[in-house]
Automatic annotation (TrEMBL):
Organism: Halobacterium hubeiense
Gene3D superfamilies: Alkaline Phosphatase, subunit A
Coiled coil (residue ranges): none
UniProt name for this protein: AlkP-core domain protein
Annotated stretches, region: Disordered: 275-310
Amino acid sequence: MVDVPAQAANVARNLRYRGADAVRELASLVKYSRRSTTDADPVLDADWDVLVLLDACRADLFAEAAADVDYDFLPADPGSRTSPASSSVEWLETVFGGASDDALADLAYVTGNPYSASKIDHDRFHGVEEVWRYAWDDDLGTIPPRPVTDVAIRTGREAAADRMVVHYMQPHFPSVLEREQRSEGVELDAFGDDEMSVWDDLRFGRRSETDAWETYRENLEYVLEDLELLFENLDAERVVVTADHGNAFGEHHVYGHPGGVDLPVLREVPWCETTATDTHSHDPDAAGRDDTGESGDVVEERLEDLGYRT
């Protein structure tokens, strides 16, 4: 459910600047908080060998990119499904937390999302590779796709797991390309406390929706390049590309991806079915593979960097 006290605090903080808009946002969050009005499609019970999660990817964004970019694995008209969640935490707790031991025992989870530190029970999985622990880029304020791709390729080639979930952080903000150009990174330790500036920029009219959407699209195209590499270096008959949740760009006065909100823009996600064949065109570098055992403070800072409140 929506954290109403926290959202009320946001309204109080923003009331001076946003006036009635801040009140409307809170009212929408309460109105559309989960009431089981929309049934979710199955995730773990669906038929796949490899499930690729693109964090915060809307179905319409994915369809737009699929129509314009030329990748063999992308159909011109990809499908969509209804996610059980409108946030990463909710997805992890619902999909993995609600799964049987048998469903997870043969599942490898390769992830760039720091919520894996606290929101899943590692012992229930065949294996969990927390790539964010050693491959976070403080300058970018996120983890780029390539380290996740490399670990996924190694896991696919070496692990005995029957199934694998690969969780990329893109197209979730921050914008990788903007950070590269401006050299304005946020340290990994800042992942989770302050809201992402892009949403406040939209709330306060400092940035147009068109500009923010273009940046969102660039983040998606950035990770799609790695998916092409991944699918040329895995053997999997059934591959699905999907997302944990979407993003709201002001629809019904909602911004970002608050948990427990039943809006189509937050719960409709891509569902693109393809295959993968290992051509051994890429040999992932094993350097930097060791878990650094990041402290709880560092995990929270990384969550803050991605705009989550901890």
